[in-house]
Amino acid sequence: MVKRRTSISEKPQPTMHDVARVAGVSQMTVSRVMRGKGYISKDVRNQVIGAAREIGYVHNRLAGGNATYDNPIVGVVVPTMQNRVFTEVLSGINATLDESGLRPVFGVSEYAPEVEEDLVFDLLSWRPRGLILPGLEHTEALRKIVAQTGVRVAEIMDTDGDPISACFGFSHVKAGEDMAKHLIKRGYRTFAYVGSQGGLDLRATKRFEAFAGIVREAGAQIVACETFEGASSMDVGRRATHQLLQQDSPAQAIYFANDDLAAGGLMHCLAEGLSTPGDVALAGFNGLSFLSALPRLITTTVTPRFDIGQAAAQWLLQSADNNAAANKVELPAELRVGQTS
After folding, report:
1. Which residues in 19-127 belong to E strands, given as ranges?
2. How far apart are CA 81 and CA 67, in angstroms?
3. What phi, psi does 156 have (nearest 5°)?
4. Phi, psi of 336 (to 5 degrees)
5. Predicted structure pTM score
6. The CA-based dihedral angle spanning residues 250, 254, 256, 261, taken in that order and rounded to the nearest 10 degrees
7. Are 161 and 328 spatial neighbours (Cβ–Cβ below 8 Å)?
8. What's the angle, vertex CA 286, arms to CA 115 and CA 303, rounded to 5?
C-alpha cells in the first residue's frame, strides 16, 4: 500500500485567471487552450502557453481537481529510445516502482530541450508523485515550474553539475579523462572523435571535451572530429570510420560517443582487413551487452544503467522533503580494456 502524502509545495499556485490576465485573453480562451478543445489560432495558443510558463501555471487534468503532486505515477523523460541505453534505465525504474504500486509514464525528447520542457509541463498536469529527467541541463522555464510546483525531481545519468534536488549517475568528465589516459599510456598520439545527435547530447560533449583536454595536456592531438545528425547506429559508425581513415594522415585512435558507433567502426576495419589496434585503435562508451558477440571485444566504458534507474526510483519513493540539501549519488562507470586498444 502506497502511503499518501500531503502537497509538497505550500506556495499559492497560479490560476487560469492569472494566465488570462498575463496573456491578455479571456479565461474561457485559456480553458480551451489547456483542454485542447475548439479552434484556437496558433498565435493565441502560443500566447497563452507562454503566459502559463511565465508565471508557472500547470493545468490540472484530473477530475475532482486534486491539487497535490501525490498520484501513483512518476513522470519520466528519456532523450531517445533509438539505442539500448535508456531501455535498460527504464527497466530499473519500472522494476522499482512496480514493487510500490506506482507506474512510470514517460516521454521521449530526442535530445531537444524545448521538447523536454513541453513533456514536463504535460506530465505535471497529471500531478505525478515525482519526475525523473535525463542529465542536469534544462530550460529555465522547466526549472521555474519545478520550483513553483515543488514536485520532486531525480536527475539521472550525470553528476557533473548541480542537481535540482538529487542526481544519480556518474561523471562523464572522469569517463572521458580515463579513456584518454588509457589510450595515451598505450602510446597513441593522434586521435579522432565520432559523435551523433548533431551535438545535442550534452553528456557526450562533456566526455569528449574532457577527453580532448587530457590529450592536449599530454602534447597529443585531436586531428579530426565528426559529429553526425540524427541517431547513432553501427551504419553511421562504419561510414564515419571509412571517412576518417581516408585522410592523408589518419588518426591512430578513434574515440566514439557510444558502442553502436564503435561497433560500426570495428565492422569497417574487419571488412577492409585492417588490424585493430595495429592499424587503428577503437574505443566506445556504455558497455552494451551486444559487444560480447562481436569478433573482437571493443575497449569501452561500462555504465550501470539499470542501477541508475533503480536508485532514482528508490529515492523518489523514500524522499518526502523537496527542500532537503541537493545530493549526488555516484554509481561509477568503469573502463573496460578490450582487444581494440
Report:
1. 71-78, 103-108
2. 32
3. -125, 160
4. -120, 115
5. 0.81
6. 70
7. no
8. 95
